[in-house]
């Protein structure tokens, strides 16, 4: 197959990247690995909210897309052969406008755009809805990671067919989380360990009442301490989660049995931590995802549709909300899930294998798009003269 003359394919990858959330960094890891599988020689450029962090983490070119002028954005995108949006939850209130700006510019520059297992919602701002509708309609191809995202985009007026696949981070390969690392965090691997993930209220979870959900999780942690004789390990997926973990710990009757991870870890190391856990309770989507991958019985706490969708996909139980009034149902579900843990582990492993197959569809769709770019860029007999000679650059595909 022809390449792009004497240069490598140039692909931009755009998302909520820059070290703010381990789930997003897990997604970026898998998207970059996938693109390298498709085209090992491609030049990859990360469009990041904090490019210095992305350069440090991944050792490659990273450029900003927020807080920059239109001319700076044009300069960054000039020469791209493809712009990949996502994956992850990028189309929600407060972020959709900023992240769609470079995508719309790419379309205006004639650069093909691909949505890679993106997530949408909540989306209520009228200006952002209009922008999302316009840009998504003009994307060359896209997939979404859950059914909630299809509903959000349909409600925004997007009429094109959209495929549901799976979150890119489903394909993340765990790294070892050693016993020495556990000991540094004050965790005894000889105890039963229950992982717990909390999060802050915000745009994605603006209905959460802090005091109410802190008490709910404190009751759950105490229950597992006494029921399972377990040590609770709070696993921050963002640095801000640490403060909320402390708030839950302070509301426990047995706080001395709990630990909070305080060191910085790579997403794959957190995925590797899961092999040490006997049970997991989590709010953060990718914490739940890593637990499910390891076959750890997990109870997701669905503060948002994306968590509920994932729970359904892997056959995990889920409450209807995250508030103090859910204490009774939560403790009963924890008790049942522990008693049925062997069957739960087997179900998680079977369902997760299906998710991995669906996640591979993202790669195949992206591969097909790239193959099409190279076919259209390949000169045919007699084209050289028409394009100004053999040294002329590739024909850039037009916006679809």
TrEMBL record:
Pfam entry (one): PS_pyruv_trans
Provide this UniProt record's keywords sorted from A to Z.
Transferase
Please give the Gene Ontology molecular function terms for this protein: transferase activity
Q: Which residues form the signal peptide?
A: none
Residue stretches making up the Polysaccharide pyruvyl transferase domain: 21-303
PANTHER family with a match to the protein in the record? COLANIC ACID BIOSYNTHESIS PROTEIN WCAK
What protein am I looking at? Polysaccharide pyruvyl transferase family protein
């Amino acid at each position: 197959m022809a390449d792009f003359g004497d240069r490598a394919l140039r692909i931009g990858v755009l998302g909520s990247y820059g070290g703010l959330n381990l789930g997003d960094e897990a997604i970026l890891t898998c998207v970059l690995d996938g693109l390298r599988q498709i085209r090992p020689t491609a030049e990859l450029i990360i469009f990041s909210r904090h490019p210095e962090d992305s350069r440090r983490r991944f050792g490659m070119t990273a450029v900003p897309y927020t807080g920059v002028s239109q001319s700076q954005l044009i300069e960054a995108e000039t020469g791209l052969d493809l712009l990949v949006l996502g994956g992850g939850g990028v189309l929600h209130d407060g972020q959709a406008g900023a992240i769609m700006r470079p995508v719309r510019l790419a379309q205006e520059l004639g650069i093909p755009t691909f949505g890679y297992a993106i997530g949408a919602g909540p989306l209520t701002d009228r200006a952002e809805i209009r922008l999302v509708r316009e840009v998504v309609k003009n994307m060359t191809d896209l997939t979404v990671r859950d059914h909630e995202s299809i509903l959000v985009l349909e409600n925004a007026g997007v009429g094109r067919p959209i495929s549901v696949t799976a979150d890119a981070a489903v394909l993340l390969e765990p790294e070892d989380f050693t016993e020495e690392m556990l000991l540094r965090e004050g965790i005894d691997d000889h105890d039963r360990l229950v992982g717990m993930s909390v999060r802050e209220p915000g745009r994605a979870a603006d209905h959460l009442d802090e005091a109410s959900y802190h008490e709910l999780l404190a009751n759950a942690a105490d229950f597992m301490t006494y029921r399972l004789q377990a040590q609770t390990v709070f696993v921050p997926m963002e640095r801000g989660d640490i403060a909320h973990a402390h708030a839950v710990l302070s509301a426990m009757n047995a706080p001395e049995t709990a630990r909070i991870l305080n060191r910085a870890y790579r997403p794959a190391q957190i995925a590797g931590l899961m092999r040490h856990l006997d049970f997991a309770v989590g709010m953060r989507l990718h914490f739940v995802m890593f637990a499910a991958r390891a076959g750890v019985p997990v109870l997701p706490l669905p503060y948002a549709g994306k968590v509920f969708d994932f729970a359904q996909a892997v056959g995990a139980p889920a409450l209807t909300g995250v508030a103090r009034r859910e204490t009774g149902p939560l403790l009963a579900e924890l008790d049942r899930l522990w008693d049925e843990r062997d069957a739960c582990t087997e179900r998680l492993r079977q369902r997760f294998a299906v998710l991995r197959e669906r996640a591979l569809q993202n790669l195949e769709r992206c591969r097909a798009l790239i193959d099409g770019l190279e076919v259209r860029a390949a000169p045919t007999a007699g084209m050289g003269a028409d394009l100004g000679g053999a040294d002329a650059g590739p024909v850039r595909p037009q916006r679809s």
